[in-house]
TrEMBL record, chain A:
Coiled coil: none
Keywords on record: Oxidoreductase, Pyruvate, Thiamine pyrophosphate
Alphabetical list of InterPro entries matching this protein: DH_E1, PDH_E1_Alpha_Subunit, Pyrv_DH_E1_asu_subgrp-y, THDP-binding
An annotated GO BP: pyruvate decarboxylation to acetyl-CoA
Its job: The pyruvate dehydrogenase complex catalyzes the overall conversion of pyruvate to acetyl-CoA and CO(2).
CDD domains documented for this protein: TPP_E1_PDC_ADC_BCADC (cd02000)
Protein name: Pyruvate dehydrogenase E1 component subunit alpha
Enzyme Commission number: 1.2.4.1
GO molecular function, one term: pyruvate dehydrogenase (acetyl-transferring) activity
Residue spans crossing the bilayer: none
Span list, region Disordered: 1-23
TrEMBL record, chain B:
Pfam families for the chain: Transket_pyr, Transketolase_C
Protein name: 3-methyl-2-oxobutanoate dehydrogenase (2-methylpropanoyl-transferring)
Residue stretches spanning the membrane: none
GO biological process, one term: response to nutrient
Molecular-function annotations in GO: branched-chain 2-oxo acid dehydrogenase activity
Organism: Triparma strigata
Keywords attached to this entry: Mitochondrion, Oxidoreductase, Transit peptide
Lineage per the UniProt record: Eukaryota, Sar, Stramenopiles, Ochrophyta, Bolidophyceae
Domain Transketolase-like pyrimidine-binding positions: 1-176
Amino acid sequence: MATFDLEGTFKTHNLDTAPPTSTEATEEELLDYFKTMYTMRRMEITCDNEYKSRAIRGFCHLYDGQEAIATGINDAFTQEDSWITSYRCHCVALIRGGSVEKVLAELFGLQNGYTKGKGGSMHFYNKEHNFYGGQGIVGAQVPVGVGLAFANKYKTPEGEHMPVALSAYGDGAANQGQIWEAANMAALWKLPAIFCCENNSYGMGTSVERHTSNPDGDYYKMGNAIPGVKIDGMNVLSVREGMKFVKEYCASGNGPIYVEMNTYRYHGHSMSDPGTTYRSRDEIAATRSARDPIEFVKKCLIENNMKDEAELKEIEKSIRKEVQAAAKKAKSSPIPPMEELYNYVYAEDGTKEKAEKQKFIRMPQYKNSVQNA
Amino acid sequence: MNLFTAINEGMRTAMQTDPTAITFGEDVAFGGVFRCSVGLREEFGADRVFNTPLCEQGIAGFGIGYAAMGGTAIAEIQFADYIFPAFDQLVNEAAKFRYRSGNQWNCGGLTVRTPCGAVGHGGHYHSQSPEAYFTHTPGLKVVMPRGPVDAKGLLLASIRSPDPVIFMEPKVLYRAAVEDVPDEDYEIELGKGEIMRQGTDVTVVGWGGQLRVLEKACDLAEQNGISCELIDLKTLAPWDVEIVTESVMKTGKLVVSHEAPLTGGFAAEISSTIQEECFLSLEAPVQRVCGADTPFPLVFEKYYVPDDLKNFEAIKKVMNY
Ligand SMILES: Cc1ncc(C[n+]2csc(CCOP(=O)(O)OP(=O)(O)O)c2C)c(N)n1
Ligand SMILES: [Mg+2]
């Protein structure tokens, strides 16, 4: 167990209280963060490679650089809390009860993926873990999150702690009108809604200064009626403690809150964006060397004599192997059967009916055509 | 010249000839995701070519306001899939401005450009072709070019049209389609289709990227001794009823194809009109060859899309009816 200083990692807006200025963490906790975050990093790097070798097609947005956010939030939350996020969702899917194999299988468009390959990169969900998924439409998840918050409030007996509902979105998304509409509803009805802006400084190629009129691009100050907290999103302990504070605030009936996570994405916006035209390589390198969220946890472990450099290297090596093995396993998933195309359009499974309606479906190879005349 | 360069040329010409013309959208100042606005900021300056925040409803409303004061607004919605947050502004505000103000106001200067259609791996939200939502809205014009030459001429006509236009660009063609595009300033009349290929046995109608597929289907038919008349509608609202009726009167058979789902798609409108106009000439039921009635599935795209073979089947079907 060691104590960690969190001074300067939070800013608050319209709040009488604040997250703590220090926290304690055990070796076990830190090691767990390290392993989780390193697995995330390797998974995203694997995606990058698989995309380049064309095993992954379509739109693919990576989370490396932002790992501490999902990790810290998850530790402050329980499985009862609801979580909905944007298309940058591989790692949230992973931490909310997922596996590298399952994430990759979806990306490969295979049967064992989250939606049997029908969605791909932006489409992961986990009902058991209250994860309501990624969202391809920027900002659309936020009003949905307010509905989740309402349901959480509605089903909790008066006076008891409520599960919270977190809607995560980017700095670019913060300018969508829906977010303001949603915030007003949440404040009006005092819902346990957390509006969590993962501010990585860019919405695709547009930097924060260019897209917001908020002074200093401060997204935690978006509300007059809603207070806010800004958290160092590269420090997993700050995220954890900040989110514990935020969760307590919401769960105990104070209404919604804005959270801004200060973070950075290493990769370009998506696979078609090299990520270097609108920002400098120096900026990326400087973030990597000064603020990397995984390096931070490593430092915590080493400086407190919990693990040494060599031990961590060993762990990294074994995680790399695990991710590699998971990717291989994911690839061996079967291809989803053609009938799946019509499944789940409506509550009533339309497979048979629809297949009959389409009397003839010509396949690229004629002999595989479907004839239901 | 390919399609994105032709679009770029069209916008450049529009901005050179009209000092009120501005162009804006998400990441447009850097050239846009598909490079359509590349170089425009350098040529026309940052107050005529600029990035907006990520807010489609705002982009559409803003464009309507600018156009209402007589300006020419060329807005880009990054993907047609993201036009839905702007749907209210386009359907309730833009389309009806002239009508509801008793012709005092209008936003005819507004053109909304947006890339649409499948690319092979776009999945649910980078593949849709939402043209039918807009053809169902009186007051809007809806245009979709099939290649670079048309793209430039139709875009210029759209930008200069006195009505708001939804200009959909088949993104699969941005780089793939290459043609000799005239340098000069030219317009292609909206509301007029074109017979791409003369034929006598079957009329085949499509628009945008689907025409490439239909050309292949017609080739297959031709190899089997079936003569197809292939028509590009170019403008969907208002659409060229005459060109299709005349052709169907001659052939007695019609196949219409689009990538958007079958139910409520624009093919239904064409089919119904032709049934009214050409009832006595029809020799077979009109065939619609369209996308499946499902969301756009990543892994099943090749089954979902109405490819050349499905169209060829439909052509054979009307021939053998
Ligand atoms: C309604 C809508 N408009 C545009 C897009 C295209 N798009 C996808 S992500 C993105 C940028 C979002 O940036 P930000 O919210 O900062 O999130 P980040 O990518 O940085 O995580 C844009 C413009 C979209 N998916 N949906
Ligand atoms: Mg961002």
